[in-house]
Structure formats: structure tokens, C-alpha cells
Amino acid sequence: MKRILIMDDEIEVGNFFRHLLEEKGFNIKTAVNKNEFTTLISELSFDLALIDMKLPDSNGIQLLKQLKKSQPMCKAIIMTGYSTVKTAVEALKNGANDYIEKPFDDLELLEKTLDNFLSTEYISNRTETNQLATTIGFIIGENAAMNELAKLAEKIAKKNINILIEGETGTGKDVLANFIHHISQRYNQPFIRINCGAIPETLLESELFGHEKGAFTGAVKLKKGIFEIADNGTLFLDEIGEASLGIQVQLLRVLETGEYYRVGGEAVRKTNTRIIAATNKNLVQAVEEKTFREDLLYRLDVVKLNIPPLRKRIEDLNLYLNYFLQKVNASHLTFSGESLEIMRNYMWPGNVRELFNIVKRAAALVDEGETIVTPKYLPEKLLQNNHQNEDNYQMNDEFESFITSWTKNILSLWDGHNDIELDDVLFSVKELEKQVGRSFVLKSLKNHVGDRKKTADSLNITTRQLKYLLNEKGKI
After folding, report:
1. pLDDT digits (tens, 9 = 90+) for 404-422
2. Alpha-carbon dihedral sign for residues 58, 60, 62, 66
3. Pairing mode of beta strands 372-373, 334-335
4. How far apart are alpha carbons 23 and 326 in whole angstroms?
């Protein structure tokens, strides 16, 4: 018999769940304070725990951490009021499997949620989710950050809350949004993408909200907007940071009330569209600079997902390459070991999108009959980066060789029994200072492609100091 723990300081809540679940054959235990909770999890094992977020002598996240430390396999659901949804999302990041909002208005949904976590099909559902992610192109792989991101995305996908995705250009924010849509309850409804930075403000307003016939010059017929077309579905607003302040005001109204007007229209229209927004900008900084509304950020940032750049998940390079080779119908190709090494050492400023373009390029250039993508089929920028890395390795070797030699020499003086000249020791220390300083300057100079101003700034020194360290004291 599966055992369930209910942690809530209101006795009525415990009685409610006891009545709801005991008739289903579950063993229910209740706790109304931290001490009772601690005692129960130390004496009994549980399959599921429902923990209230706000408690007189503790809080849900603290008890969740305590539970996960004591019984890591026990599934946990946080119970929260609407005003603490953002805190509940923090609980998801700390190991909670889900959260439910109080009061429990939809009992059918509540029972379905509990049955799901107590079902033996729960694990197989995770397998199906991973397969769906791969089909869509959302590569999870072995990277720890991507696995945590996928778990959190899966948990919040089924909630009717807005999501903000942050990440560098080309990291796959649109793919993550598509993944969330397909594992949500809206999967059979429209998923529509729009880039807020690619459309002029006047056209963007019409695209989002539609327009009436004759609303402006060229409006020869009525047009439905995306909020109308995507009703009950998902709208992905890419580069939301590029939206004008005027559009931001209208988006805020939709998020607050679910209402909007067509351009030139007077009738209030309703929408049940879920918003997933994405940006490569720092929106907090944009708020400080008065280019983004703080109240809109508050509405969008209910859940924030940060997708890491490709360079921080490079251990899954082969997975991305195999997926992209299949996508361009070139699965017969493989990248040579040398090509892979060059790609792993590249910084990927364009991220996954840049990698896809390189795969397409290689598939188009490979000679007929060849199956191996050697470095000659890679772009020059990757090869130059490889040569730069070789230079860096040489510089590192020279620096390490000097440090090793100096250390060996100074230790021999220390361990020796003969008299020494202190001036010789101090001269050697000054030589170390000089060579170390020069080495760090050369390394920074190389990183900034010879730009001395940027090099000096990065080292927090003046250009005069930089010249001195480069032994250019007499040069202008």
C-alpha cells in the first residue's frame, strides 16, 4: 500500500486529503508542524508528500529539502496560493515534482495529478518526453545544465503560466519553446512564432491583434491577429526586448486581462493564449534604461529558463552533429577526429545555429564518394581559431617552463649550505615579477587581437604600464 504524507498546518486540509485518498486504498499520514513532519519522515518511508508552502514554524522549500535529503525517491508536490506561484517555481528547482494551487477548485484535475505521480507509468512518461524532445530537436544529452533545464521545463509546461527564456543568440530558444508547447496541455492547439525585432511597430500591432477593414491605408479587408489565431494555443514572442514601448503596453493589457482590441476596432476581444517570451538581452538592465516596462517584465518573468550556450555543453557535440546530419539528409557522413577536436576548441559565438550552418556547408562541399568530413571542409574561422589555440599552447609551455626553471633555481639556493648574496636573490625575484607580468600582458594582448587599449583595460592598468611590461619603456 502506497503511503502519502500531507504537511499542512490547517487540520481541515489533512482531513480533506484523507477523505479523498483513503478510499482509493492509500495510507495517509498528516503533520501540522515541522516537528511532526520530521518525526514521520524519520520513522516511515513515503511514496508522495504534499507540502504547504506557507507554515507558521517553517516553509515549504525548507521541508522539501529535508524530505529530499532523507528520502530522495519520494515524489513531492508543493501546495501554494496564487500569490506565491513564483516561490513554488523555486520549489520545482529544488526537487519538487509539481505544485498545486489552493483552494482546490478543480477536484478532477487534482485527482488526475495525484494519480499520475502514484502511477507506475510515471517513469515511462519521462522516456516518452525525452523521445519527443529529440524529435523536435531539443537535444538534452549528458550536459547537467541541460538536464536540469529539461526537468524544470517539463514540470512547468502543464501549468497555465507565462515563461521567459533567456539565452544568447542561436542557442535554441525557439526549440525549447516548441518543446514546452508539445508537452503541455495545449499540444494539439496552434504554436505560433513571431520575432518582435524583425517587424516594424505598425505592422507588429496588426500582426498581433489583427485589424478591421479600413483601419488604415492598405487595410482592404478584415485580418485576424495572432492572439485570435493562437487562442488556446501558445504564442512564442522571440526577442521581446526589441518590442516598442507602445507594443509593450498592449501586451501588458493582454497578460493582465486576456483582452485586446483589433486595430481600428471597438469591440473587446478575449484570448486564452499562453505566452512564452525569449530574449538575448538583459531585461533588468533594459528596465533601468527605460527601454522595457518593469510591470511587463514582472508579468512575463513568472518562470525564467536560461538556456546555456553551446560552448558550455560541448560534451554533446556528437549528438548535435548526428541530428543535423540527419536533418540535411547526410547521415552517411561523419566528422573526423581532427575536425571534432577543432570544433570542440571553438567558442561558437553563433551557438547551435552556427553549428547547423557549418554542417549544411560541409554536407554541400564534401566530394562525391567521401564519407569523412576532414578539416578542409570546415570554415576558415574555425581553422584560424585552431592555429590560435596552438599558439596559446606554445605560450603556455614557455611560461610553465620559465616558472619551473625559476622555482628550481630558487629552491636550490634555499636548500644550499653555502653563503649567498641576498642581492642575487632579490634580483631573481624582480626578474620573476617582470617575466610574469609580461607573460600575462602578452596573453591578454593576443586575446584582444593586438588592441592595446582593450588589453590595458582588461588588466586594469594604463597603456604606459603596458608598454613598460613589454619592455617598450622608451617607445611612444
Report:
1. 888 888 888 888 777 788 8
2. positive
3. parallel
4. 51
C-alpha cell at 73: 525517491
Compute, in degrees rounded to 10, the torsion defined by CA atoms 320, 325, 328, 332.
-170
Calculate Rg over the CA atoms of the chain: 30
Count the Cβ atoms, other than its own, within 10 Å of residue 351: 23
The mean pLDDT value of the chain amounts to 88
Using left for φ > 0, alpha for ψ between -120 and 50, and beta otherwise, residue 32 falls in alpha
CA distance 98 to 91: 9
The rounded distance, in Å, linking the Cα atoms of 76 and 30 is: 14
Please give the Cα distance from 440 to 142 (Å, whole number): 35
C-alpha separations of 217 from 208, 211, 214 in Å:
18, 11, 7
What distance in Å separates the CA atoms of residue 148 and residue 266, rounded to the nearest whole number?
Answer: 46
CA distance 250 to 134: 36
Place of cell 644550499: 416
Burial class (CB in 10 A: 0-12, 13-18, 19+), 362: buried
Place of cell 653563503: 419
**What pLDDT digit, counting tens, does each position of 291-303 carry?**
999 999 999 988 8
User: Is it the case that residue 238 has pLDDT exceeding 80?
Assistant: yes
Higher pLDDT, 394 or 208: 208
CA distance 225 to 281: 26
% of the chain at pLDDT higher than 90: 57
- 422-447 vs 452-459: helix crossing angle, rounded to 10: 120
Evaluate the omega torsion of the peptide bond into residue 190 and state whether it is cis, within 30 degrees of 0: no
